Amino acid sequence: MPADPLSTTFAALADPTRRAILARLALGETSVTELGAPFQMTLPAISKHLKVLERAGLIERGRTAQWRPCRLDAGPLKEVAGWVESYRRFWDQRFDRLDDYLREVEGKAQPGTEPK
Amino acid sequence: MPADPLSTTFAALADPTRRAILARLALGETSVTELGAPFQMTLPAISKHLKVLERAGLIERGRTAQWRPCRLDAGPLKEVAGWVESYRRFWDQRFDRLDDYLREVEGKAQPGTEPK
DNA sequence: TCACTATTAAACCACCCAGTTAAATGACGC
DNA sequence: GCGTCATTTAACTGGGTGGTTTAATAGTGA
After folding, report:
1. Residue A96 — very low, low, confident or very high, per pLDDT cuts 50/70/90?
2. Cα(B92)–Cα(B99) distance, rounded to whole angstroms?
3. In which element (H, E) is residue B17 found?
């Protein structure tokens, strides 16, 4: 239901098989069969994972003869990085005291869409 | 089923309501009722979202009287940032030519768990 | 104790997801 | 055209998820 791109990207990344596929594609374009080789899983399952990654815009697909090779498209990861970076100050120890200070000064503010 | 922490974190982030809750918590600790106020959703639904966030380690919960306030714990986001950063060179335009070069030199390597 | 507030639990629903097997599509080589 | 390889589709299953309503738990305060 939530069709927003960030949710789709996060959902696509929430599976270790799909993340492993992306890692393999980071080494270069390859075929579906070779992508599936490392996994104890049938090829239709791999094909479904690829469809999820494609809908999330994380891979692109070509058509060379009977092969439909995949290549990585890291565009959506840029938005993920941007989102997560906006929380950096919350895990970076160097800003812990600053956080306490800001929280003290600001008190309770109205809810916004993203922090900072 | 995939109980690995990174998958759990990504799955927790793959919902706009939960991301909005995190954004609200970035402004400071607050109660369940106040967290649910901006959403057209019943409180049990909010409570379930909080349980998902808690299992992912993204929030911590206290016990002050009848309130069980939530506060942000961005620890897992650090791992997310680390994972996504390993793909930075694939979306950063400045490295496009370098990518082509590396792909040419490396040819096909064996699949690893993460790139580079 | 009683009424009230804050929060969760239980039971239920519709739907999506990850996986399977079996069959279909499509391109190649002979 | 035929057999073969690469890939996808169809149909099905088990289990998780996001939401609801109703009811239970737990603390506060008179």
Report:
1. low
2. 10
3. helix B16-25
What are residue A60's DSSP bridge partners?
A: A71
* Extents of the domains making up chain B: 5-75, 77-106
Query: Does A15 lie at the interface with B, CB-CB under 8 angstroms?
Result: yes
Q: Which of residues 36-95 of B touch strand D (CB under 7 A)?
A: 40-42, 44-45, 48-49, 52, 65-66
| Of B11, B15, B106, Cβ closest to residue A27 | B106
CA A19, distance to chain mean position in Å, is 8
What is the distance, to the nearest Å, from the Cα of residue B19 to the centroid of all Cα atoms in its chain?
8
- Tell whether domain A5-76 is in CATH 1.10.10.10: yes
Q: What are phi and psi of A73, to 5 degrees?
A: -130, 100
Please check whether residue A102 touches B, CB under 8 A.
Answer: no
Does residue A14 lie within 7 Å of nucleic acid chain C, judged by its CB?
yes
Q: Could you give the CA distance from residue B69 to residue B61 in angstroms, rounded to a whole number?
A: 6
Is the CB of residue B71 less than 8 Å away from at least one CB of chain A?
A: no
In contact, B72 and B58? CB cutoff 8 Å: yes
Task: Give the three-class secondary structure for B54.
Answer: helix
A44-81 pLDDT tens trace: 999 999 999 999 999 999 887 778 899 999 889 999 99
CATH number, span B5-75? 1.10.10.10
